[in-house]
TrEMBL record, chain A:
It comes from the Bacteria. The chain crosses the membrane at residues 124-145. Residues 78-107 are annotated as: Disordered. This is Uncharacterized protein. The keyword Coiled coil applies. The lineage of its organism: Bacteria, Pseudomonadati, Bacteroidota, Sphingobacteriia, Sphingobacteriales. Residues 30-57 form a coiled coil.
Length: 168, 160
């Protein structure tokens, strides 16, 4: 190996290059040397393999559902963007269809979350609705039973009237 | 950059995404996801936080595929650079050489076989993305000396 190339490889500049610690000029120089000298290219390849081995030693597998989450977020963004107007003409058409002001500064975003957050005051409203629901249910049952009782009384009275008529 | 502006920019960019961009990103995730997560965990020392960073980085990857897949580029290096850019504000503080002396102990599992000087230089460039020129200035050494130390560190780790 040419002594100059040997010294260049031994200088540590290639290690600095693979870790991203070189200046822009040094980076250009390394890439140039890589093109010109196969020894430099080979040394760089070996260093990249060393870096990958180091990364493998430290690797930590991500949770299985993480890619799905990333993909759905990327896709969500893309799908939303497909609904954005492509031409100025589309904008006016879309705004007339959806009664949406073109210069309102808002973009419709379809959230992927299935949950919603509401103000705490709604919990009292829900509690009141629940209690009122129970009260109405109680009244309904009461009046139903009353009604049934009244119907039974009427039936009995009718029966008595019929019996009295037949006795005469 | 405010979050809303960031979202707007992503929406602008998202218009150019194709299915093959998503597939290429998925291939990179399955090849490098565990490496990058391990790398980020080393820096942030919190698995959940690291996972969030990993997700954020891979949401950016589809827009950087040209750089990551260009001929001769080292995808793993490019992904590390992306991670460094993300971590810069929160974790990549502008540590001086002396501060690196204690910070290097965070990465003891990886660099324990190296000399203190090698640990400082290696952690400086690998985890804190410092250039050899900056490290040379901070450590009162020449740039050539720092590069030599870095090379020795690589040889030690390879053989260790």
């Amino acid at each position: 190996m040419d002594k100059r190339i040997h010294d260049y490889i031994e200088s540590g500049i290639l290690e600095a290059f693979v870790t991203g610690a070189t200046s822009a000029n040094e980076e250009r120089e390394v890439l140039q040397m890589k093109k010109q000298f196969p020894e430099v290219e080979q040394a760089l390849n070996e260093l990249e393999i060393d870096m990958e081995k180091l990364a493998m030693r430290m690797a930590s597998p991500p949770p299985p559902q993480l890619w799905d989450r990333i993909e759905s977020e990327i896709n969500g963004l893309t799908v939303t963007s497909k609904h954005l107007p492509q031409h100025p003409g589309d904008e006016s058409q879309r705004s007339s269809q959806h009664n949406h002001k073109p210069d309102s500064g808002f973009i419709e975003v379809e959230g992927s979350s299935t949950h919603m957050r509401i103000h705490k005051v709604w919990r009292w409203v829900f509690a009141a609705v629940f209690i009122l629901g129970k009260v109405f249910l109680g009244f309904a049952i009461y009046y139903y039973l009353e009604n049934r009782q009244a119907k039974e009384n009427i039936q009995e009275l009718k029966l008595e009237i019929r019996q009295l008529k037949s006795n005469r | 950059m405010t979050p809303s502006l960031s979202v707007n920019l992503n929406i602008e960019k998202a218009q150019h995404l194709t299915n093959s961009d998503i597939l290429a990103t998925r291939a990179l995730f399955y090849r490098y996801g565990s490496w990058l997560l391990g790398y980020i965990v080393e820096i942030v020392k919190d698995h959940e936080v690291a996972e969030q960073y990993l997700a954020d980085i891979f949401k950016e990857v589809p827009y950087k595929l040209n750089e990551l897949n260009s001929t001769g580029s080292d995808s793993w290096k490019q992904l590390r650079m992306l991670a460094q850019a993300r971590l810069k504000t929160a974790y990549n503080r502008n540590l001086s050489g002396k501060e690196l002396f204690s910070e290097r102990l965070k990465f003891d599992g990886v660099v324990s076989g190296l000399t203190i000087e090698q640990q400082i230089v290696f952690c400086g460039v690998y985890y804190y993305q410092k250039s050899t020129a900056i490290l040379a200035h901070e450590l009162n050494l020449t740039d050539a000396e720092v590069k030599k130390i870095l090379r020795e560190a690589f040889i030690m780790m390879k053989n260790g």
